[in-house]
Amino acid sequence: MKEYLLIFRADFLDIATVSSEEMQERNNRWIDWIEELIDKNAFAEDGNHLTSEGKVLNCNGQITDGPFREIKESVLGYIIINASSFDEAVELTKECPILAGENTSVEVREIIETWD
Questions:
Q1: Which of 29, 38, 50, 78 is the most exposed place for a label (fewest CB within 10 A)?
Q2: Which residues partner with 74 through β-bridges?
Q3: What's phi and psi for 59, nearest 5 deg?
Q4: Does domain 2-110 have CATH number 3.30.1360.70?
Q5: Structural domain boundaries of the chain?
Q6: Which residue has the higher pLDDT, 73 or 23?
Q7: DSSP of the chain, one letter per residue?
C-alpha cells in the first residue's frame, strides 16, 4: 500500500455563509465518508483543518500576507489515505463530500519517502 495526501480546496467565503444546520449536515457527510474509508482500510491518518490566515514566503525571501480570501480555491485541510495505486486513490476520493460544493476540489498526491 502507498500513502496519498488529499488536499481539500474550497471557497472560504462560501463557508462563512452556511447556516449552522447546513454545517452540521456537511459535518455528518464528512463523518460518513471517513467511516467508509476506515471500513475499506484506506484511512491512514487524520489531517487538520486550516485557517484562512497565513503568510507566503517566496524564493527571494519576500514575505506577504496570504493565502488571500478572494481566491476561489483556498486550502481548507488535508488527510492521508492508503491505496494500492494512484487510480485507486482517485477512486476513493470521488465520494469526498467537499466535491458536492461549488468551486471545490481535492488534490491527490502520492507521498514518497525519498527522491530517487
A1: 38
A2: 10
A3: -65, -15
A4: no
A5: 2-110
A6: 23
A7: -EEEEEEEEE-HHHHHT--HHHHHHHHHHHHHHHHHHHHTT-EEEEEEE--S--EEE-TTS-EEE-S-TTSS-EEEEEEEEEESSHHHHHHHHTT-GGGGSTT-EEEEEE--SS--
Q: How is residue 4 written as a grid cell?
A: 496519498
> Cα 9–86–107 angle (5° rounding)?
10
Chain segment 1-34, per-residue pLDDT in tens: 999 999 998 887 777 788 899 889 989 999 999 9
pTM: 0.83
CA atoms within 13 A on the CB side of 86: 6
Confidence band for 71, pLDDT divided at 50, 70 and 90: low
Average predicted confidence (pLDDT) for the chain? 87
